[in-house]
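Blinded run. Sample ID left blank on purpose so nobody reads anything into the name before looking at the predicted structure. Input follows.
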Amino acid sequence: MSKQDQLSMDEEALFRDIHHHILRQAKAGERIDTETELATRFNVTRYKVRKALSVLSQMGVVDRAPKRGMTVNALGPKNLSAQIQVQMDIANFDIREFIEARQLIEVNIIPLAIRRMTPALLGRLEDAISRIEANAGNSAEADRWDREFHLLLLEACGNRVLQVFSAALVTYFEKIPQNDPQFFLDIAKNERLLLTAIKAGREDEAKALLSHQLGEQVELLQGTR
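Blinded prediction complete.
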């Protein structure tokens, strides 16, 4: 969420009221209120309504288009993860709580991921590592593929509830861009070791490797926040 979209406590309360109201309308099959109607209903300015709707649009809850008006999207895992992530931003939790939650969840889904891993997902994980290596000199792109690797591990666990919450945690962490290609080459090397342990079904080794990798990334985050 951009700085201009950060919500004050009063705006957060309005955001939640509008969110609940339009979801109720969608569930009942009713027409979704316009900005003007929402402003009248909640006795606020259209600017405040527009700000709340902008956040809901970022979350994937609504689509807004000229003439067509506003529609509420169906809730799939990706939309749910995006909604949870924006709610986390609004809540302004301590970064240490995110770090602890991410380490606990990601490391402990490894046994499920090993048991439910498919050849197709193994191929996608290997491709993500190759793309990290190929883009080591492009920090933004390499970092994107590193996050994709972790999201694929979560997908492999096969539990959609865990996947929704964990994906929100993973995408919350965006590292400060690194100019040294070796940084991402080292990440790719560690992820190849992790993938080898997963293929061999070595749970303890895989958990230790992932815990070590996340620990290094946490140190980087703590040093830059």
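Unblinding after everyone has recorded impressions. The longest helix spans residues 203-224.
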